[in-house]
Amino acid sequence: MKNIVQGSIITTFRCNAKCHMCDIWKYPTIPSEEINPKLLEKLPDGLRINITGGEPTIRKDIDDFFEILYPKSNLLELSTNGYNTDKIVGLAEKFPNILIRVSIEGLPKLNDKLRGLPDGFDRALRTILELKKTKCKNIGFSVVICDKNAQDLVKLHELCSYLGVELGNSVMHNSWYFHKFDNFDEDREKAVRMEKQFISSLLQSPRNNIKGKLKDYGRAYFNKSILKRLAGDESNYRPPCGAGEDFFFIDPWGNLLPCNGSDKKWIIGNLNDASFEELMTSRNATKIMQKVKACKKDCCFIVTERHDMVRKPWKPIYWIAKNKLKLAFNIQTDFL
């Protein structure tokens, strides 16, 4: 309990996109069965909370989640595909200190193909442009990296740098959450080559402010783990998992889980039946954490890397300095 700093609320499995790496849209939740926002009053104060889905802005009561969590959270985040521009902008105007990440998979043609959402890139870009007019400043895109979109990574970074917005990133996984177990990179060589170019671009950030540059350097360090995953490394490419200790997930029915990366759902309990503290200190929580400790999946999520970087800052600082020097003097580096 003492380490918990972040939670993710999966508000719905309904989604208007049909992404190549995620089959949530094939298993939509029934609106009447989805979690009541008031249930989240049980969560501790001071957490970083991510509102996600499916597509969370499909929910008619999405504002209620923000009404409850905005004053309770240290940082409140919305993960969205950006399609419902007016609703997203409305949230930003009402809750200006939130963080918003709009998911894309590449430049226009590739994005719309991989996300199965007609005019998806157009909608995402329009949403970002409208958000820039609001007082909400922590905005940006996010991308799930794989061999199918690796060729667009550098251009996406350049686009975000020019727009003055963030570019969050993760890597393709299989799990119960994505309803996928057949995701794999067909062209690892291409993915590795393009990922190295992306890391190089991040380390030579073209952004014109020091905060933006520092964030790019930190993302470059995280992408070291993504690079190893793309290369096929099966272990030792990421810090120990913090599932259930640093972070947790709540599914659309109110079930409390340690993570979204396992093959099967590891349910600690349901918030409808007990308090958050009671669930996290229960016997079942102890059993679930034994499964977490024995897990060999080695997921590569920023939620784990971020906490490790904060606790051991000398690791990213050394890696960043070493590789920036190599780039400055044209010394070959594999970023590992």
- Give the tally of β-strands: 9
| Helical segment count | 11
Major sheet details = 9 strands, mixed
The low-pLDDT segments are: none
- As a percent range, the share of strand residues is 5-15%
Helical proportion, percent range: 25-40%
What strand line-up does the widest sheet have? 6-5-4-3-2-1-7-8-9
Query: Rg to the nearest angstrom?
Result: 19 Å
The separation of the N and C termini measures 33 Å
Give me the secondary-structure category.
Answer: alpha/beta
Order of helices and strands: EEHEHEHHEHEHHEEEHHHH
Query: Which overall shape is indicated by the principal axes computed on the Cα atoms?
Result: globular
Overall mean confidence score, pLDDT: 95
Compact overview of the structure:
The protein has 336 residues and is of the alpha/beta class.
Notes on the protein architecture:
The chain has 336 residues and is α/β, with parallel strands linked by helices. Helices cover 38% and strands 13% of the residues. It has a 9-stranded mixed sheet with strand order 6-5-4-3-2-1-7-8-9, sandwiched between helices. Helix 2 links the parallel strand 3 (75-80) and strand 4 (99-103). The chain is globular.
List keywords for this structure.
alpha/beta, nine-stranded mixed beta sheet, 9 strands, 336 residues, single chain, 11 helices
What is the topology?
Layout: E1 6-10, E2 48-52, H1 62-69, E3 75-80, H2 85-94, E4 99-103, H3 108-115, H4 120-131, E5 138-145, H5 153-163, E6 166-171, H6 188-203, H7 210-230, E7 247-250, E8 255-257, E9 269-270, H8 276-280, H9 283-294, H10 302-311, H11 314-328
Parallel strand pairs: 1-2, 1-7, 2-3, 3-4, 4-5, 5-6
Antiparallel strand pairs: 7-8, 8-9
